[in-house]
Amino acid sequence: MSRWATTGAVGLYVAWWAGVHAGFAVDFTKESAAEKAARMAWFQEARFGMFIHWGLYAIPAGEWKGQEIPGIGEWIMNRAKIPLVEYRQLVHQFNPTRYDPVEWVRIAKRAGMRYIVITSKHHDGFCLWDSKETDYDVASTPYGRDVLKPLAEAARAAGLRMCFYYSIMDWQHPNYEPLPAWDRDRPGHRPDMDAYVRYMKAQLKELIEGYGPLGILWFDGEWEPTWTHERGVDLYNYVRSLQPTIIVNNRVDKGRKGMAGMTEEGDFVGDYGTPEQEVPSRGFPEGVYWESCMTINDTWGYKKNDHNWKSATTLIRTLVDVVSKGGNLLLNVGPKADGTFPDEIVERLDAVGRWMDVNGESIYGTTATPFARLRQRCTKRDGRLYVHVFEQPASGAVVLHGLTNQVRGARWLANGTPLRVVQRDGAPALEIPEGLPDPHDSVAVVEVVGMPGAVATTIVQDDDGTVELSASDAQREGGVRYDMTTDSLGPWVGSQDGAEWAFHLKRPGEFRVEIEYACGRGDGGEVQVTVVDQAVTGEVKSTGSPHKFHRMPLGTLKLTEAGEWRSTVRARKSETARTAMYLRAVYLVPVTPAQ
Ligand code: FHN
Q1: Residue closest to 232 by CA, chosen among 268, 187, 179
Q2: Given ligand 1 and candidates 276, 292, 294, which is best to mutate, with the most ligand atoms within 8 Å of its CB?
Q3: In the predicted structure, residue 24 carries a pLDDT above the cut 80
Q4: pLDDT in the model for residue 130
Q5: pLDDT of residue 261
Q6: How far is it, in rounded angstroms, from Cα 235 to Cα 290?
């Protein structure tokens, strides 16, 4: 840790010590930006962590009484409406004989992960440690031993931070309110949130003092009305009072408002935003911390029939996408009931690890891209830009629009091969030879004089006059999400869903508007592309699959002046469709090619 960070941490400790010994509670939400930066330093350096969802739900693994239960595996008690008296019988089946925490940590470290967040207690209330506050825990199972202690020891021995997920919502506790809707006549229930908060605090004390120091307390289940901002502030301060340097996510409070759980500074507590199963369309200002949590298939807790695994390429590119916007990626594993990781997960994490072995320098401790055009992923650190090249660029070059810093040179990180730097469109451009060094993501290291701040260029017209408005560069509205696997935006349901781009036009003229989209069977609807006050519309029909993309002209429009323009897309699905389309890009193609 840097001297500055150490000073910050020491300052924090002294304030805490004085506060506690003077008998008054310290309000940790009032710390300075420098103190917070010191506390968050390891988090910003780490960039990549392992999420683990493990508990009784791994036993049914998505099935109940012979029925496949839809939805995420750890919600089976809710989705199958299992009364507690039945669900808690699973305690007598929990016996992960093949649980090997050292192997779990080895897999995480081999993947390049720097911290581990495990569900100490999920919504079902079952505890993975021997808690004095309840017998609904691992000590009551045939396994009988503490799961968390050996994992924390293995993590620390390997140099990884140990972190605990803890659910505020609790489907079993006699004082938690509300009682689960599917188990209303449960005997002995006495709603009393003050008593329940005392229970939580006692358990959090066990976790922090018995297994700490911890990296993060990862709260979840904060959305029910009985949990309030006031209770969140109190719990945040309580946890920090037990370990002042601990990091607490924004779900301790009602902070998940907005895309990345980030709202105006100060109206909620929690140290960082927690977008889930998505990557925010734009980065956040420097100094705003956030972490995207994602599954490798579609469930957090293990489900035997969920085989929708993301590819290693998608996982690597998602990590790069997140870090290039200034965030961390918390990638989830749902272990089986026997304590092993599914083979498909181990294979993918090993592939990610091989990429990280060569390219980790472009991830760890880097900060967000200086470029507004996010399609060109870039991370930066210590006078170096790391330009991430996913596919061979059709133009043969990657143009670093807006970069004014002097470029000293460029090379592939993987093999040191020098890359030619030329001028294109008045900006430095890397010539990218055929034959990228890595099929997932080839990283070009660009040495620059000084570190560029945010280079707020918009999308610039290509040499041939075309303007490409791509999915990854869009500012999204409504329910539209960016999917890395298909490099597209969806779903498009109604008028609230939209995408917008700002672009710079050097050569005005008449343009043909084309969309590149995919549409599954039964999907389809109407699409409209608008550029300021001109609009072209069309009907989108099935292309046969959400992964089969088709490029279609919609009509022409005239852009009469050079300068800054904005374009928006809206689409409305047809009655029976799930979505109108999956949109990969909008192209403005000059009707009369540029001279
Ligand atoms: O309901 C939980 C869910 O089971 C899972 O733990 C995710 C992980 O972030 N959090 C909640 C849904 O937002």
Answers
A1: 268
A2: 276
A3: no
A4: 98
A5: 41
A6: 20
pLDDT tens for 288-326 read: 799 999 999 999 999 999 999 999 999 999 999 999 989
Q: Using most ligand atoms within 8 A of CB, pick from 69, 216, 220 the residue to mutate for ligand 1.
A: 220
Q: How many Cα atoms occupy the beta-carbon half-sphere of 98 within 13 Å?
A: 8
- 27 touches 51 (CB < 8 A): no
Phi then psi for residue 359, to 5 deg, are -120, 10
Q: Which pLDDT score, from 0 to 100, does residue 26 have?
A: 82
Residue 575 to residues 268, 307, 537, 579, Cα–Cα distance (Å): 40, 30, 18, 10
**Boundaries of CATH 2.60.120.260 in the chain?**
467-590
Give me the amino acid identity at 182.
W
Phi then psi dihedrals of residue 433, to 5 deg: -70, 155
Residue 12's pLDDT is what? 56
Q: Among 3.50.50.60, 3.40.50.2300, 3.40.47.10, 3.20.20.80, what is the CATH number of 31-278+286-309+327-336?
A: 3.20.20.80
Q: Which helix (H) or strand (E) holds 86?
A: helix 84-87
Class level of CATH domain 377-457: mainly beta
Confidence of residue 426 (pLDDT cuts 50, 70, 90): confident
Mean local confidence (pLDDT), 378-407? 92
CA distance 458 to 395: 19
User: Dihedrals φ, ψ of 282, to 5°?
Assistant: -125, 165
Q: Which residues sit with their C-beta closer than 6 Å to ligand 1?
A: 72, 74-75, 220, 276, 293, 300
Cα 220 to middle of ligand 1, angstroms: 7
CATH 3.20.20.80 boundaries in the chain: 31-278+286-309+327-336
Ligand 1: centre distance to CA 122 (Å): 9
Place of tokens 């040191």: 416
Is the per-residue pLDDT at 2 higher than 60? no
C-alpha 403 to ligand 1 mean position (Å):
40
- 402 Cα–ligand 1 center, Å: 40
For residue 83, is the peptide bond before it cis, meaning its omega torsion is within 30 degrees of 0? Answer: no
Which atom of ligand 1 is least distant from the CA of 122?
A: 6
Location of structure tokens 């650190």:
381
Ligand 1: atom nearest CA of 332 is 8
The two structure tokens encoding residue 447? 């040495």
C-alpha 294 to ligand 1 mean position (Å): 10
Q: Are the beta carbons of 124 and 90 closer than 8 angstroms?
A: no
**Domain limits, CATH 2.60.40.1180, in the chain:** 377-457
Chain segment 582-595, per-residue pLDDT in tens: 999 999 999 976 55
86 CA distance to ligand 1 middle (Å):
23
Which of 107-111, 252-256, 543-547, 578-582 is least confident? Answer: 252-256
Side-chain-side CA neighbours of 177 within 13 Å: the count stands at: 11
Q: At the topology level of CATH, where does 467-590 sit?
A: Jelly Rolls (2.60.120)
* Cα–Cα distance list, 105 to 101, 113, 269 (Å): 6, 9, 31
